[in-house]
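Slide 14.
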Amino acid sequence: MRLPHADEIGTVRLTSPPLAVTLHAPEPLAPGSEEALRFGPGVPTPTDTAAGRVASVWHGTVSPGPGPQDVPRRRRSRRGVLGGWLLPAVVLIAVAAYLAWQRYAPALAVTGATVHTDAAGPACDGTATVIGTLHTNGREGTVNYRWKRSDGTVSGILRQRVAQDAHRTDVVLRWTFDGHGTVRATATLEILSPDPADASATFTYACP
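Slide 15: predicted structure.
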C-alpha cells in the first residue's frame, strides 16, 4: 500500500485489494479427549491430584507433609496397636495382683473350735460319732490336731486341709463300745497349729 502525499489528504487510494479473512469455528473435541478442559464447581484443580501435588511440592508451594488421606490410616493403626496390647496388659495386671494377694495376705488362722455328738450315746456294742468343727479366717492351709478320749486314749497328730474361703471345716472321731455297763465318756478335740484351741463333748454309753 502506498502512503498518501500531503496534497492527497482528501483521497486515499489502495494499490491492491484488501485481504479477505475467514474465521472458522473450532471443531468439537471427541469425548474423553485429553485436550478437553472443564471448569466450574466440583472440578478438582491440578493441585488436588497426585501429579499436581508432586508439582506443587517441586515448586515449593505445598509442604511435602502427609496428605489428608494418610491421617485416618495412621490413626487406625495406632488404635489397632493399642487394642492389641490392652487385653494382655489387663491379664498381666490381674495375675500379678492375685500373686501379690496370695503372698502378702494374712495366713490361715484358727479362730475357734466346737465339738458335738448325740448326748444319749450309742446303743449296745455301738459306735459314737463325734464331730469337731474348726473355725478359721477363710484362708487356705493345714490345721494340725488330735483327739483325746476320757479312757486315756490319745490319737496321733492328724492333719486337715482347709480350703480357700472356707470358714468351717469338720473333723470326725468314731468311738466304739462293747459289753454291758454304763460309761460317762468325753471326747476332746485339741488343735495344735496354726493356733492352739480345744473343745469337748460328753455323752453316756449305757448297755443293761
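Speaker note: The first strand starts at residue 110 and ends at 116.
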